[in-house]
Automatic annotation (TrEMBL):
Ranges that cross the membrane: 60-81, 87-109, 121-145, 151-170
Gene3D superfamilies, per database record: MFS general substrate transporter like domains
Organism encoding this protein: Schistosoma mansoni (Blood fluke)
The protein's name: Putative oxalate:formate antiporter
Sorted UniProt keywords: Membrane, Transmembrane, Transmembrane helix, Transport
Length: 206
């Protein structure tokens, strides 16, 4: 949640600013903003259904990868004009908010799967604290780092890819049998911890 907060903050604060810079139709931009809210709401239901079917790890990895690509490529639409930039702006804006919605659908499921159902509300509250810290961090960055929205979108894409690199190490015990290969990274991490523990115990016995 800490890392996801930066792309969320950039997207919610800079999307319309980017649009106003390159599109002079304010009514069009307001309409797009309303439509993106529908994708944000509907996306939560869609991602929730996906998690119910495939568990949380694979959807999170896919969401982070595609979200990162969209954030990276979004500034490119500024090189188009006329009706083309309007069409591309609608597509990217709706897609960005659709993938944003996945964060709030999948994190509770991931918390319950990793830490178990006992004290789930407290555990998710602790996880969500990362969002609070991330909001403060995003505010500090925006105050002291004055760059164009295009740079913010590119950095947000990098943050998504870093988050993906961390997410592949999560252990998902509810994966369907044919998808258990996705736990290879977490198994390697676990085997290293077990191996180190055995080495320490052996040395102490000697």
């Amino acid at each position: 949640m800490l890392l996801n907060c930066f792309p969320i903050s950039v997207l919610t604060s800079s999307l319309k600013i980017f649009g106003q810079t390159h599109i002079s139709d304010d009514r069009f931009l307001s309409t797009v903003t309303a439509v993106t809210s529908l994708f944000n709401c509907g996306g939560r239901v869609a991602w929730g259904a996906i998690v119910d079917h495939f568990s949380f790890k694979i959807p999170i990895c896919i969401q982070l990868c595609l979200w990162g690509v969209l954030l990276f490529t979004f500034p490119v639409i500024a090189y188009t004009t006329g009706i083309v930039i309007k069409i591309l702006y609608v597509i990217w804006a709706c897609a960005l908010f659709f993938f944003l919605s996945g964060v709030f659908s999948m994190m509770p499921a991931a918390t319950g799967s990793i830490f178990g159902p006992i004290n789930l509300a407290v555990n998710y509250g602790m996880v969500y604290l990362g969002f609070s810290f991330g909001s403060v961090l995003s505010l500090v960055v925006s105050i002291f780092w004055k760059v164009s929205p295009e740079i913010y979108f590119a950095v947000s894409g990098c943050v998504c890819l870093v988050t993906f690199a961390l997410a592949i190490w999560l252990d998902d015990r509810n994966l369907p049998g044919r998808l258990l290969f996705m736990n290879w990274f977490s198994k390697q991490c676990l085997s290293s911890r077990v191996s180190n523990q055995l080495t320490v115990d052996t040395c102490e016995d000697l």
